Amino acid sequence: MLWSKYYIPTLKEDPAEAEIVSHKLLLRAGMIRKLTSGIYIYLPLGWKALQKISDIIRQEMNRFGAIEIRMPAVQPGDLWKESGRWDVYGRELLRFQDRHGRDYCLGPTHEEVITDLVRGEIKSYRQLPINLYQIQTKFRDEIRPRFGLMRGREFIMKDAYSFDRDDQGATKSYEDMYAAYVSIFEKLGLKFRAVEADSGPIGGSFSHEFMVLAETGEDTIAVCTECDFAANLEKAEVKYADTPDSPADCPELEKVFTPDKHSVEEVAKFLKVPEEKIVKTLLYDADGQAVAVLVRGDRELNEVKLKNLLDVIDLRLASAEQVQQWSGAPVGFAGPVGLNVDVIYADQELMFDNDFVIGANEKDTHYLHFDPRRDAKIKGYYDLRQITESDPCPRCGAKIELTKGIEVGHIFKLGTKYSEALRATFLDENGKERPMIMGCYGIGVSRVLAACIEQNHDENGIIFPPPIAPFDAHLLALNPKDELVKDKASEIYDALTAQGIDCLFDDRLERPGVKFKDADLIGLPLQIIVGARALQRGVIEIKIRHSGEKIELGLDEIVSGFQEVQKKVFEFYRL
RNA sequence: CGGGAAGUGGCGCAGCCUGGUAGCGCACCUGCCUUGGGAGCAGGGGGCCGCUGGUUCAAAUCCAGUCUUCCCGACCA
Q1: Structure confidence by residue, pLDDT tens digits, A404-444
Q2: Residue A36, CA: closest nucleotide via C1'?
Q3: A254-382, which class in CATH?
Q4: Among candidates A412, A432, A558, which has minimal Cα distance to A495?
Q5: In terms of DSSP bridges, do strands A130-139 and A154-164 run parallel, antiparallel, or are they unpaired?
Q6: What are the structural domain ranges in chain A?
Q7: In Å, what is the separation between the CA of A104 and the C1' of B58?
Q8: Mean pLDDT value across chain A
Q9: Cβ partners under 8 Å of residue A316, min gap 6
Q10: CA A96, C1' B52: Å apart?
């Protein structure tokens, strides 16, 4: 492809609207443009990269037995009413009516449609299992779209749905998809981890998230340095090697004056006790009910664990008024003794110690010498806090590391939630009607592109791994007015193209600096630089984008030499 | 929805406080010149100052309302 005949509108400056690096670079490299909030136009380079990602996904999905279909973006409201999600999905579901006043929505996901299809077509155990997928534009009217392709309202997703006769089959389908996902992200040349995840509101028995590792990731994941344990922070279990001895006797509770000391940090400093000898009492409004949770002062409560324990839909930190009402004191002085809340849970860690400082439910007052078992009516001790790097791996006890990642894929074992709601049943060998066991498997295709850039860039621009790069190589004719340079570059372009190498040829009448900057910005893995100076010495130059290494090639060995360098680059990405 | 910020040629911004000819850099067009890291010189085109209303002889500038966008929180591929 000739640059002069293509459309790559690069930008010198960072657009004001972009905050994170992938968003800035996607805009600057001329890959996307915003139409309106959370909705983007894919320009040629961006679209080509997305196609390459889609092709790899398609190839691996097919290899693992899934079959591609294409479902509509517009879906009838009736189906959503049937599954019960019309009322629970909330405002993220963009709804509208047609001219007859019938309800429709833009599909944020396709469980309803696929289940509707399958229930009408598949009636016998002989037709199972089946796994159908599509690569499609989804629409979710996100509360707050942000970060370019990272969280758009309109985005491209690959979603697959499996249907099985029994749980064993469903597990096999799940495992196949797990294997397919591992293969997909390996073939994309990305550094990633599969982590155990909370299955969230979609429900189901177990689930994994696929995380592209990047310092700028929004999710934190806990990874074991020894075994293959990896889990989303929300899910990561805190486990104690053995139960420590019961704590020693504890002096009686004693009130102390703590003027204006609200935070754990302030109280610790004021009373000269370590933060771990303080217990914080967090008050929550759980579906309207007051709940108190006790956690050590130096720990963070994990709200997902709490939510799962309580099994509630709406969990929120109590408002200042609620705190006043329930504790009888302003925020910062709540404590488990004399609290006007019936349900008190504690993190399991509190079983192992006593003699804590707690709030006294009175302004500017705390208690010393709190013993959880002696002084409070605690409903139960559970794993409720966030794991830290000083906790052992819950599997093997080795060291845990926390790293950042971007969720690009999520696989779920759904069970029969939708097949029961929509009556997708089949007849088994005994002629008995049974609901199909489902699984669903998503990859955020457009997010993969953003995540790829978050993981692979430097101060000059994108550094594409070869599988995602929109072109294999970037050929620069430094001064196309120089006949020799122009002819030689054209010759190289033809020779590489003949070898099936997809080459972007910068033939513009621009100064060299402009071309170098643009080449680094759009980040193709290899740059082939043809300039008068080198040509006089009978060589051209290849620059490897990720390492900056430059290799000179004689004019008679360009194609073979290029392929050798390319091989080295593939090895770097373990391809 | 709660909290914060911003809307001025395609992009990045100044001007606003203290009302009176709309400005700078990049990009764009023409010519000269230049070609191994976003050159230089000369000439040129392009702006409902987000929108509506108000104050005023006069509004980008002051006032009110409204829309949009971005950032932080609740949601997710």
Answers
A1: 999 999 999 989 989 999 999 999 999 999 999 999 999 99
A2: B69
A3: alpha beta
A4: A558
A5: antiparallel
A6: 42-236+402-454, 254-382, 469-572
A7: 53
A8: 91
A9: A284, A285
A10: 29
Q: Alpha helix locations (H) across A472-556?
A: 483-498, 512-522, 532-536
CA-based max dimension of chain A:
94
Q: Which amino acid is at A68?
A: E
Q: What does the pLDDT look like over A91-143, one tens digit per residue?
A: 889 999 999 999 999 999 999 999 999 999 999 999 999 999 999 999 999 88
| DSSP-derived secondary structure letter, A251 | P
**Stated in angstroms, how far is A166 CA from B66 C1'?**
58
Q: Which of A110-114, A183-187, A378-382, A480-484 has the lowest mean pLDDT?
A: A378-382
- The Cα A477–Cα A488 span in angstroms is 9
**Lowest mean pLDDT segment, chosen from A76-90, A198-212, A477-491, A561-575:** A198-212
Class of A42-236+402-454 in CATH: alpha beta
Q: A469-572 maps to which CATH number?
A: 3.40.50.800
Q: How far is CA A431 from CA A46, A124, A169, A409, in A?
A: 52, 9, 19, 37
Angle, helices A21-28 vs A445-455, to 10°: value is: 100
- The residue with greater pLDDT, A271 or A159, is A159
Measuring from the CA of residue A407 to each C1' atom, give the nucleotide at the shortest distance.
B77
- Distance between CA atoms of A446 and A191, rounded to whole angstroms? 17
Joined together, the tokens standing for residue A435 give 């609901």
What is the average pLDDT across A23-38? 94
Cα–Cα distances in angstroms (integers) from residue A9 to residues A3, A12, A316, A469, in the given order: 10, 10, 46, 17
Tokens linked to A319:
């408002």
Nucleotide closest to residue A476 (CA–C1'): B36
pLDDT tens digit sequence for A3-30: 999 999 999 999 999 989 999 999 999 9
Share of chain A above pLDDT 70, in %: 97
**Nucleotides of strand B lying closer than 7 angstroms to a protein CB:** 1-2, 11-13, 25-27, 34-39, 68-77
Residue-by-residue DSSP string for A229-241:
-EEETTTPPP--S
Give the distance, in angstroms, between residue A33 CA and nucleotide B68 C1': 17
Minimum CA–C1' distance nucleotide for A406: B77
What is the pTM (predicted TM-score) of this model? 0.90
Task: Provide the CA A36 to C1' B48 distance, Å, integer.
Answer: 21
Strands (E), A109-214: 130-139, 154-164, 192-196, 207-213
Query: How far: A461 CA to B43 C1' (Å)?
Result: 36
Q: How far is CA A204 from CA A177, A341, A440, in A?
A: 16, 32, 10
d(CA A492, CA A433): 65
